[in-house]
Amino acid sequence: MRICFLMYHGSMYSGGQGVYLYYLTRELVRLGHEVHVISGPPYPRLAPGVALHRVDGTSYYRFLEDRKGFLARRSPWEFFYPLNFLELLTTRYGLYTLMLTYSLRALPVFLELHRRHPFDVVHDNQGLGLGYLGIKAKGVPLVVTVHHPLLVDAHNAVARSRSLVQKVRRVLFYPAILQAPVTRAADRIITVSQASAGLVSWAFGVPRERIEVIYNGVDAETFRPLGLAREPRSLIYVGNSEDPNKGAQFLLEALHLLLRRGVDFRLTLVDRPRGGLQLAPRLVRRYGLSTRVRFAGRLSTAALVREYNRAQLMACPSLYEGFGMPVSEAMACGTAVVATRGGALPEVVGEDGAGLLVPPGDSLALAEAIAQLLADPQRCLSMGQEGRRRVLSLFSWRKAALETLRVYERVLSGSD
User: The pTM is what?
Assistant: First the structure.
């Protein structure tokens, strides 16, 4: 089968969607299929045998934050090109139009590749580009993976905004409106959890029977127990701490509560370098946590595995997760987990003793759960062993690839 994946930025270091792209395409190639990826920057590192086709992109949304090097491009007039100018103009009003402009740039690249050697199926990751409707108009079967509706992010952001201006800016920032037409036009929708499936059906008015749940996998050969000694009373957070939906603010507030009680702990925060962060460093200073929090920056996969293995527990304070890859990676490393019940996290952690679950946005409950586990290393060890067993039984990229292929086959046969 000849398969084309579309991804507005596919780097593994840009988030879970890049991890999804890497491992799923790798397994499809290993199963004997021809896989092409059309991606914008930052461009992904793909597995051997996966063909990458680069689409130019911009960074105009960051222009007001950092103008250095803005005009140091291939041409000083480049921002007057139609799509570049559209992105520059719209971002001045707070709209995040990267996904839209990427899809319009990707469309001619796809059409030329398809003209030379037709694809059997196109697989889009997140359904955020109206340009994909041009692919559908060509009669090419379109499968879309929606990790979760961006309406969830927009709703949470608006709920936290204090002023009308902030609320409007949050609505403009999240391109939630783009997901609906692309998702509805897809021949089949894949999502990564039962929680996401219900939300996708509700948010886009799509019949539940058109949605296939295929859990993400975990590279359990890479993310594995290393036999390292766990650092007593240590915990790790992995994610975008600048995104309020990821809940780092609740974790830091919970640690502040523990500090006031005299509870000892050390947090390793894995995110972009500290110089590129605002929210977490500000809260660390406000809560007096400077000697308790280490900003590790972005880590290589090998270094991240070591950090998971050194931590006594992993904390995931997200308000909502469509799946929660850092949680499954920590579990694969045999690390106990404290997570919220936001979205799919109960599906990932389970009810069999791999971790503790607390209500999302509840700093006090989060503090209580962390304190319980930090005080009981043996319980953490047992939870970690159960987490590893759960990952091995449920979350395999080979299994995800085989189930995805069955979706393609049903679409091509018209059995849907």
Answer: 0.86
